[in-house]
Amino acid sequence: MSKNTKAPKALRGVGNYIDDRFHLAKAGEKNLRKVFPNHWSFMLGEIALYSFIILLISGVFLTLWFKPSMAEVIYDGSYERLQGVPMSEAYASTLFIDFEVRGGFLVRQIHHWAALIFVAALVVHMLRVFFTGAFRKPREINWLIGVAIFAIAVVEGLFGYSLPDDLPSGMGVRVLQGVMLAIPLVGSYISMFLFGGEFPGEDIIPRLYMLHILALPALLLGLIVAHFMILWHQKHTQYPGTGRTEKTVVGTPMFPAFAVKAGGFFFFTFAVIALLSAFVQINPIHLFGPFTPTSITSGLQPDWYLGFMEGALRIFPNWFDFSIGGYPIIIGVLIPGLGIMGLLFGALAAWPFLEQWITGDKRVHNVADRPRNAPVRTGLGVAGIVFYGVLWMAGSNDILSETFSISLYTTTYILRTLLIVGPILGFIIAKRICLGLQRRDKETLEHGYESGIIQQLPSGEFIEVHKASSEETEHVLKSKPPVTSTALTEPEVDDKGVENPEARKGRGRFRRALAHWYTKDNVSLDGVRAHNGHHAHDSAEAEKEEVAH
Amino acid sequence: MKWITARRRHPLAGYVVVILALALFGVGYAALAPTADQAQAQTLAADVPSPDDADVLKGRDIFNQTCASCHNYDGSGSFGDDDEEFTRGPDIRGAGAAAIDFQVSTGRMPSMDPDNQMPRKPMAMSEEELADLIAYYNESIRTGGADIPYDVPDTAPERADFEDEESYEDAVEEWQAEYEAYIGGAEDTDMGMRLYLANCAHCHGWSGGGGALTDGRWAPEIHDASAREIYEAMVTGPGAMPMFSDSVIQPEEKQELISYVKTLQAEPNAGGIFDLNRIGQVAEGLISWVVGLALIIACAIWITAKQRAHD
């Protein structure tokens, strides 16, 4: 296309009209040309964004018919099996959506599947950001916003799960109330306040409804917009490669290439969710039946994102419960119910600042770390995944026990042990794998890659020919940043021979110990020149080297 | 073969091999594994002989051969050699005919391993032999316990027990009418549901799919159980199950309860052809990750893929 090509007159007219008033051309050009790095792991957050959009649209559809009321009605709708059964209006209206509203059943299932995939996408997106160190300066604030989105999404999901007032809803709310009651001193007041009296009362559904469709989505939407605007302003991180520096981004421009990709990706996400909703039954509330306070069933779990909390409640022992003057302190519910949740989100929020404190690294980072090049961080991440995973498994211990014919008590003991041993093992193994990969990187850098060609030398010796790596690979391997900490480079005494006051204090010493732990065991690239190894027999360089010997 | 040889290094060849292998295993397994129909045919009872023409003498032989080694010849039970505390077979004199019918017709008795909970199995004897056994038990051993609820429909008749098609079809028709009258006779879904969800679901699960219990025991799934077997289980309390006698839950209430479970079981899955075995949230979570999210991520990898510089 030549530069003289003009847009059709009609379009130009509209364009000029808008530009004369809003001066959008410049901003538009800048933003449309914005460059997005091309890697699948940068699309994970988009999955979450798209599922959120699907949630908003399907959610609006559902609100047209859902009645958030606990008033008792006798069902006389078209679902024959439950005719004549007393139930809350909330449950009856959900049945109405399922069986009377055209497409209602499908949309309800879309809403539920999209919720499961939304939180799952949040988690994998967060893991990507964690393992590549993309939370480092200047992106700490955006990381915190992300953690907040995660926490709110989990609560939002729980409230949505509770709205239809079917059997699992009621049991979920009951667990929520149990955790509230375990809070010392104020627990029973909080419960009475939320439920407007005793469990279950008449108020809980309207209140959860308000939170689920208004307060929390508004918060989520605001945070997601902020998250996105900060991303837009700061631009993506990118993996190391030729031409990619802290100052330049390499990738596809927003328009048209990336916009087409992203648009297509939205429809693919929607297609997967819609297909799942059409063919796989989810949360069949009409089979569960309405909740009554006497109802209780085995084999029932919260949606997956609360599985870790359920699991913590299931395997945490009651050994630490005690009473003060007849008032029991239920540690066995308090720690797993609230403590684990606090630990998860607290640790996530604190990590960027903790890492910065340990390494003293205040530089701006726009090039992402390869996970192997930060072995301690990667190890800790894996330990976290194992810890979370064991708790998550524990949340389904009865299903595991029944499906695999393992005694229920045995699963509890195994999972308790795994919860402590697993993360430690995970940390050690992940760190060792990282170091092994680093060593291999170093070797590749020195010797090139194995070409698969075997050569016999005149002496009779067989050797495998190594070939020089591509420039791209070489660049990636060379760009490995050394893992250092300012704590270790600060001198213990200054030039006047006075002891460094920071290093003398307990906090300083602790930081030094952490820094040592964080930076030791790294494969250094100091003194490594590309392709100077002994096995590079193919290149002219190597031959020259041979001659030089 | 040349056609294959020429293509064996095709980039997709590996995937094709894996898919073919999986398909082979899948189809092979489906062909060899017992289908639900066959499995059910084995457990279904047949043309029930009326208790009147049962042969007590034959029943005594069956009892002495298959039951007495653990429960003793007079049904008083016996103890293991090493420990007086643990019974090898409990005293069954007061268990009642309903217990005998339940344990034998669900294949749990005769047990191969008295120390472990017995799973549901095909019945070890014929309906006729069971009737003989019960006649003998009623006459010579029984001191109490619940009667067999003959007015509650048992399992459907089986073709193998009839000589010609006609008599089989008649029996099926008769059974069907009886079954529908029993299940349809229950009108209060709410009562059945409340009874089931308050008394049964915390072990057998909301769908009747069973569940894990303490100490390595489990609550079996009750989908294969006939209405009569469910009734008998309630009045006799087998294994770890508590007893719900007719004075605790009235026979009409039991009818509501059984009807609720059976109707729920027969209920089609309105949400889609894959019901995930009605396991619920755990299965849904698994699918959302390994199917939903995995497919979407595969798409992300696809649309961002580029030609890799060879290295």
Write a concise synopsis of the structure shown.
The complex is a heterodimer of chains A (about 550) and B (about 300). With about 550 residues, chain A is mainly alpha-helical.
Largest sheet of chain A: 2 strands, antiparallel
Total of helices of chain A: 21
Distance between the termini of chain B: 34 Å
**C-alpha Rg of chain B (nearest Å):** 26 Å
Radius of gyration of chain A: 29 Å
Largest interface: A-B, 76 and 62 residues
Q: Taking all residues together, what is the mean pLDDT of chain A? A: 89
| Contiguous helical run count of chain B | 12
Helix-strand category of chain B: mainly alpha
Which percent range fits the helix content of chain A? 55-70%
Structural class of chain A: mainly alpha
* Mean pLDDT value of chain B: 84
Describe the secondary-structure layout.
The complex is a heterodimer of chains A (549) and B (311).
Chain A lengths: L8 H14 L1 H9 L2 E2 L7 H20 L8 E3 L11 E3 H11 L4 H28 L8 H23 L4 H15 L5 H9 L8 H31 L17 E2 H26 L5 H4 L18 H9 L6 E3 L2 E3 L1 H29 L15 H20 L2 H7 L4 H40 L1 E8 L5 E6 L3 H8 L7 H4 L11 H4 L1 H14 L20 H9 L1
Helix pairs in contact in A: 3-5, 3-10, 4-5, 5-6, 5-10, 6-7, 6-9, 6-13, 7-8, 12-13, 12-14, 14-16, 16-17
Chain B lengths: L1 H6 L5 H20 L3 H8 L12 H16 L6 E2 L7 E3 L7 H9 L21 H15 L23 H20 L4 H11 L1 H4 L6 E2 L5 E2 L7 H10 L14 H16 L14 H24 L7
Antiparallel strand pairs in B: 1-2, 3-4
Describe the model.
The complex is a heterodimer of chains A (549) and B (311). Helices cover 61% and strands 5% of the residues of chain A. Chain A has helices spanning 9-22, 24-32, 44-63, 89-99, 104-131, 140-162, 167-181, 187-195, 204-234, 254-279, 285-288, 307-315, 331-359, 375-394, 397-403, 408-447, 471-478, 486-489, 501-504, 506-519, 540-548; strands at residues 35-36, 72-74, 86-88, 252-253, 322-324, 327-329, 449-456, 462-467. In chain A, the strands form 4 sheets. In chain A, strands 1-4 form a two-stranded antiparallel ribbon. In chain A, a hairpin with a 5-residue loop joins β7 and β8. In chain A, α3 packs across α10 and α4 (89-99) crosses α5 (104-131). Chain A is globular, with a radius of gyration of 29 Å. With 311 residues, chain B is mainly alpha-helical. Helix content of chain B is 51%, strand content 3%. Chain B has 12 helices and 4 strands; from the N terminus they run ααααββαααααββααα. Chain B has helices at 2-7, 13-32, 36-43, 56-71, 97-105, 127-141, 165-184, 189-199, 201-204, 227-236, 251-266, 281-304; strands at 78-79, 87-89, 211-212, 218-219. The longest helix of chain B is centred in the last third of the chain and has 24 residues, at 281-304. Chain B starts with a helix and ends in a 7-residue tail after the last helix. At the A-B interface, α3, α5, α10, α11 and α15 of A face α8, α9, β3, β4 and α12 of B.
